[in-house]
């Protein structure tokens, strides 16, 4: 079929068709080939493999990060039994991650949420972004090492795919801390700024605030996550709508209240209910659609192609420039593949040996335990045996006793009988 | 009034409007103990009056005097930028008195250090003139490193006490010393819903002994009623644990009546407020409020926020008390310390170079 196609092209093609080939335009097929089924194959494979996504949330405490995450994924990642980092007072910035596996429609997603409690809460917040940067870099490094191994069958992707940065709804502009943080992280991870607790702002204030933030972001040349342009009309309209509303003003809530007979998620105030999923009230639906429904894969791609590549080239450049690995990581980039294979084999052997010794130990322990148990049961049995023997002896003795008595009685009775007989004889004479 | 009154006589002016939930302060002046026991209050050795003498017209005389001289009130607002300080001050005094309205634009850059900017206005109501000074502190808590950002504020407060002390100690004193001391400091707490931030605790610890601090929960329309009560409780507990006394301080309650009034207020503090200078139509009335897509937050509606409580407390019942506590207690503390430190202050005949001393 294919050959026929190409022959068609070469021998029957006129000038127009040749031109069409040169320009790389679409060709019309003369029958059903079947590679339209490729997406389905990819889909099936992906579904089987499952997806991973790592989301990082950064912001001062009390901005509603945990509530928003619960609302986004409609689960209680931070519930009463496992209170989120916001409930615990932190003295220094920590980076905590929680993994959860969620399933929907046969598709499973391993979602990792990275939280940064204590960010921006201290009196002196200099370098509070350093733990965050260290975390992101360490994940990229893990991936780099895993990629450089010879045997790389399983490469878990723990890199941070998206960072949601929460801006406090002051209504004025960005704080110096916001600007510093975003400047340092915009080339390491996809940064999506959000206006937290947006129900504080009236619509006009919100508009002004958004404009002010975008102005400052451009002024400081901060590169936030850009939505990719597509050719299709429908998508580009959607993307334009999202771009206009950046940064997104969100409200989070998992509490269901009733409004005009409908049940909606929202926050109940004495003057009304702020609905979370109402596009007029806040941009939560836009965020959710963008993050989960349309752009999740794109976020991962940008992380892989742009941010990770940046990290990798910087790391490798540092290595090749100096000839020696300046960073004290377990980088195995300087060795040739053979040496690396050797090392990997050695590692593997060592691991096996360790496992062996461990198993032996476990085995020993188990054998000891069993022996002990058997001894115990043996002792028990002996005891019981003794007891039964004693019982038997006692019974035997009893029986003997009874028999003796019986014999006695018998003897007595016989003696008596004899006497009686004797008497009878005497009497009859 | 900025006259120096001897501590025993504490006249309380009659309040024009009776607030609904705060009992009006006693309107009968406490007479000096050695004077004749007047009227029906027979306090030890009292002789009853045989007719109407007219002693109670002293209140009227004081009122006339006050109206002529007017009085001044200095209020300081402290808090991170964007918490609605200027809007609240405008709403409190129902006029454009804040720094914002006097010409500073909205998108000013955040200053690198804490600045102190004060704006004065003379407002008049019912024949009574008040010189209101609003002292703003832009840049507080906005930097990345906020160590000691309360120091400029502390310095300013002490400077005002120093100025007053200098005037007082002069041989030729002015008849009415201009009072620029800070009578009240409104501290704005960010409505996180969790607890106080470290910066809040530090500030209130350092300045609680020097000035009357009234903590206020800003932008209270972020919190639902349940969140509000929870947050307030937590804040109060934290303040208690840290030993921070906000105004009205328990130690300065004079009698049972004061104590019960102030207890009620202390239970309701910190007030959760919303400020606005825009009016909207609600149920046929014009009210001050904020219009959102899901409803209008009414500023003066006690169900929506506690702004009216704050206003009544601050202006309608405790305004004079604030000034008196500042004068009698905070200023006296500063003065005693200064005089003890220097082994006595020599009276200065005219203006000389100022000596700064830190409390």
TrEMBL record, chain A:
One of its GO terms (cellular component) is septin complex. GO terms for biological process: cell division. GO terms for molecular function: GTP binding. It is found in: Chromosome, Centromere, Kinetochore; Cleavage furrow; Cytoplasm, Cytoskeleton, Cilium axoneme; Cytoplasm, Cytoskeleton, Spindle. Belongs to the TRAFAC class TrmE-Era-EngA-EngB-Septin-like GTPase superfamily. Septin GTPase family. It comes from Pygocentrus nattereri (Red-bellied piranha). Residues 49-318 form the Septin-type G domain. PANTHER family: SEPTIN. It comes from the Eukaryota. Keywords: Cell cycle, Cell division, Cell projection, Centromere, Chromosome, Cilium, Coiled coil, Cytoplasm, Cytoskeleton, GTP-binding, Kinetochore, Mitosis, Nucleotide-binding. InterPro entries: G_SEPTIN_dom (IPR030379), P-loop_NTPase (IPR027417), Septin (IPR016491), Septin7 (IPR008115). Its main location: nucleus. Residues 338-423 form a coiled coil. This is Septin.
UniProtKB/TrEMBL annotation, chain B:
InterPro entries: G_SEPTIN_dom, P-loop_NTPase, Septin, Septin3. SUPFAM superfamilies: P-loop containing nucleoside triphosphate hydrolases. Residues 1-45 are annotated as: Disordered. It is found in: Cytoplasm. GO terms for molecular function: GTP binding. One of its GO terms (cellular component) is cytoplasm. Belongs to the TRAFAC class TrmE-Era-EngA-EngB-Septin-like GTPase superfamily. Septin GTPase family. Residues 69-341 form the Septin-type G domain. This is Septin. It comes from the Eukaryota. Residues 36-45 have a biased composition (Gly residues). Keywords: Cytoplasm, GTP-binding, Nucleotide-binding. Residues 26-35 have a biased composition (Pro residues). Signal peptide: none annotated. Its main location: cytoplasm.
């Amino acid at each position: 079929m294919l050959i026929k196609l190409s022959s068609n092209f070469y021998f029957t093609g006129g000038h127009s068709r040749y031109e069409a080939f040169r320009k790389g335009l679409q060709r019309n097929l003369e029958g059903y080939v079947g590679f339209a089924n490729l997406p389905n194959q990819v889909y099936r494979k992906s579904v089987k493999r499952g997806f991973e996504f790592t989301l990082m949330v950064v912001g001062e405490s009390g901005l509603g990060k945990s509530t928003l995450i619960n609302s986004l994924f409609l689960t209680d990642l931070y519930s009463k039994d496992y209170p989120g980092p916001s409930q615990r007072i932190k003295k220094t910035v920590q980076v905590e991650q929680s993994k959860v596996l969620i399933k929907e429609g046969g598709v499973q997603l391993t979602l990792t949420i990275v939280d940064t409690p204590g960010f921006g809460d201290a009196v002196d917040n200099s370098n509070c972004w350093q733990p965050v940067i260290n975390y992101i870099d360490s994940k990229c490094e893990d991936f780099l090492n895993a990629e450089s191994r010879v045997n790389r069958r399983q490469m878990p992707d723990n890199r941070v795919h998206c960072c949601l940065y929460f801006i406090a709804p002051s209504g004025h502009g960005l704080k110096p801390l916001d600007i510093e943080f975003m400047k340092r992280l915009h080339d390491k991870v996809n940064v999506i700024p959000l206006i937290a607790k947006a129900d504080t702002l009236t619509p006009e204030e919100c508009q002004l605030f958004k404009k002010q933030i975008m102005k400052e972001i451009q002024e400081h040349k901060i590169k936030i996550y850009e939505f990719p342009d597509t050719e299709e009309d429908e998508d580009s309209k959607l993307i334009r709508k999202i771009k206009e509303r950046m940064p997104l003003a969100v409200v989070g809530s998992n509490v269901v209240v009733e409004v005009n007979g409908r049940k909606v998620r929202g926050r109940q105030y004495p003057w009304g209910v702020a609905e979370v999923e109402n596009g007029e009230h806040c941009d939560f639906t836009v965020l959710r659609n963008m993050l989960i429904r349309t752009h999740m894969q794109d976020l991962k791609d940008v992380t892989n192609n742009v941010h990770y590549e940046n990290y990798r080239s910087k790391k490798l450049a540092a290595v090749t420039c100096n000839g020696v690995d300046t960073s004290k990581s377990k980088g195995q980039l300087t060795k040739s593949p053979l040496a690396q294979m050797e090392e990997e084999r050695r590692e593997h052997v060592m691991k096996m040996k360790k496992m062996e010794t461990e198993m032996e130990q476990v085995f020993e322990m188990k054998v000891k335990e069993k022996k002990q148990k058997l001894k115990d049961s043996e002792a028990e049995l002996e005891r019981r045996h003794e007891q039964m023997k004693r019982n038997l002896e006692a019974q035997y003795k009893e029986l003997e006793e009874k028999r003796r008595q019986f014999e006695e009685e018998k003897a007595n009775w016989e003696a008596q009988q004899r006497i009686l007989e004797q008497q009878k004889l005497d009497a009859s004479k | 009034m900025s006259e120096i009154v001897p501590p025993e006589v504490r006249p309380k002016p009659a309040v024009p409007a009776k607030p609904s939930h705060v009992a009006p302060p006693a309107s009968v002046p406490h007479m000096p103990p050695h004077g004749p026991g007047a009227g029906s209050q027979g306090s030890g050795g009292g002789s009853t009056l045989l007719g109407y003498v007219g002693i109670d017209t002293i209140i009227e005389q004081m009122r006339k005097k006050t109206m002529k001289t007017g009085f001044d009130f200095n209020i300081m607002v402290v808090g991170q930028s964007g918490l609605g300080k200027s809007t609240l001050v405008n709403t409190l005094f129902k006029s454009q008195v804040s720094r914002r309205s006097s010409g500073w634009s909205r998108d000013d850059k955040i200053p690198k250090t804490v600045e102190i900017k004060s704006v004065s206005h003379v407002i008049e109501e019912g024949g009574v003139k008040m010189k209101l000074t609003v002292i703003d502190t832009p840049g507080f808590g906005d930097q990345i490193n906020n160590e000691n950002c309360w120091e400029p504020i502390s310095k300013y407060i002490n400077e005002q006490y120093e100025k007053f002390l200098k005037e007082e100690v002069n041989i030729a004193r002015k008849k009415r010393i201009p009072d620029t001391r800070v009578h009240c400091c409104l501290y704005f707490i960010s409505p996180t819903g969790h607890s106080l931030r470290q910066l809040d605790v530090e500030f209130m610890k350092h300045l609680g002994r020097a000035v009357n601090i009234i903590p206020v929960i800003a932008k209270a329309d972020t919190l639902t009623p349940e969140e509000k009560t929870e947050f307030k409780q937590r804040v109060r507990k934290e303040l208690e644990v840290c030993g921070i006394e906000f105004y009205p301080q328990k130690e300065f309650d004079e009698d049972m009546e004061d104590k019960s009034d102030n207890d009620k207020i202390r239970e309701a503090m910190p007030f959760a407020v919303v400020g606005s200078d825009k009016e909207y139509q609600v149920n046929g009335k014009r009210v001050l409020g904020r219009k959102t897509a899901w409803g209008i937050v009414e500023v003066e509606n006690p169900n929506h926020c506690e702004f009216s409580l704050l206003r009544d407390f601050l202006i309608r019942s405790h305004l004079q008390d604030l000034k008196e506590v500042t004068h009698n207690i905070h200023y006296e503390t500063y003065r005693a310390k200064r005089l003890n430190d220097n082994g006595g202050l020599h009276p200065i005949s005219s203006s000389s170079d100022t000596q700064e001393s830190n409390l």
